[in-house]
Amino acid sequence: LDFMGLSTRASITGGPHRHEDVKAFKVTDAASSALVGFFYMDMHPREGKYGHAACFGLQPACECRGKWQVPVAAAVCNFPQATEGKPGLLSHGDVETFFHEFGHVMHQLCSEAKLPMFAGTRVERDFVEAPSQMLENWVWQPAALHRMSRHHETGEAIPEDLLQALLKSRNANSGLQNMRQVMLASFDQAIHAVPAADTAKVLAELTEKLMTVPATPGTNMGASFGHLAGGYDAQYYGYLWSEVYSADMFVSRFEAEGIFAASAGLSYRREVLSKGGSRDAIDSLRAFLGRDPIQEPFLKSKGLSA
Fold it and tell me: How far apart are CA 184 and CA 73, in angstroms?
């Protein structure tokens, strides 16, 4: 977090309402030492716990009774836990998932909107995934991977041939994966455009049409697709839409100035994260980029020539 002008340290431990696996952290401004907020990390599975990965805003940043209320957020994941004689190692996909959710955490913590209705991630639904998806880019950068990766027994850095193979794998099956997102977004909008629908039938038709792969007979993935009624109703397309913005922000500022450059990091914190929904996302993007967003970085990130 140093490139965004933030410092983090472990905070209070224990507590009557928190599981022993949950860790708490305090975030301060590196220049002024002012308190920015707190976040929890709940990384391992247990009985009765939420089974997916998510960021939960526990307390919004806002003005409250004449004082500033600091934000509190939680990153919740279900990564392997260490056992006796065996460390809890993360796959690269696990690391990418954590960075995604931590991007949401940073959106919550850096908010400076005065009203809670505009705090942190309370932005347009087709922009809310941009900060989380942008942070995913760091797990595909050699400099960042060398910082976070070591052999768990020898401490050896990741071998160069393995690193290059990992980087080359980024767009493996990219066409299929992105078309699946198009299909899910189309399904989401199709069933929200009518008063009633046979979801299994609609999903099967769209799967066949867009992916040219038939749906498995007797199944209905839509019945367990939580986004459909969990806040992304008719707006699941926002994942791909936000990725256009996230790719542009990363390539145009962080890749150009350095992935750990304070010039980009502080600007990102000030112009994008701190604003939350207190101004339109497009205006925050223009302030950070110095122009209107473009699609070329997104296309390039998918292995397509712009």
Answer: 28
Confidence of residue 1 (pLDDT cuts 50, 70, 90): confident
Of 47, 101, 112, 255, the active-site residue reads 101
Q: Would you call 60 helix, strand, or coil by DSSP?
A: coil
**Contact (CB, 8 A) for 103 and 246:** no
Q: How do the residues of the chain divide into helix, strand and coil, expressed in percent and rounded to 5? A: 45, 15, 40
Q: Which of 70, 65, 74 has the alpha carbon at shortest distance from 111?
A: 70
Please tell me whether the overall predicted TM-score, pTM, comes out greater than 0.70 for this model.
Answer: yes
Q: Where are the alpha helices (DSSP H) in 137-250?
A: 142-148, 160-168, 174-192, 199-206, 238-249
Q: Which of 128, 139, 141 is nearest to 54 (CA)?
A: 128
Q: Is 208 considered catalytic here?
A: no
pLDDT tens digits, one per residue of 49-64: 999 999 999 999 999 9
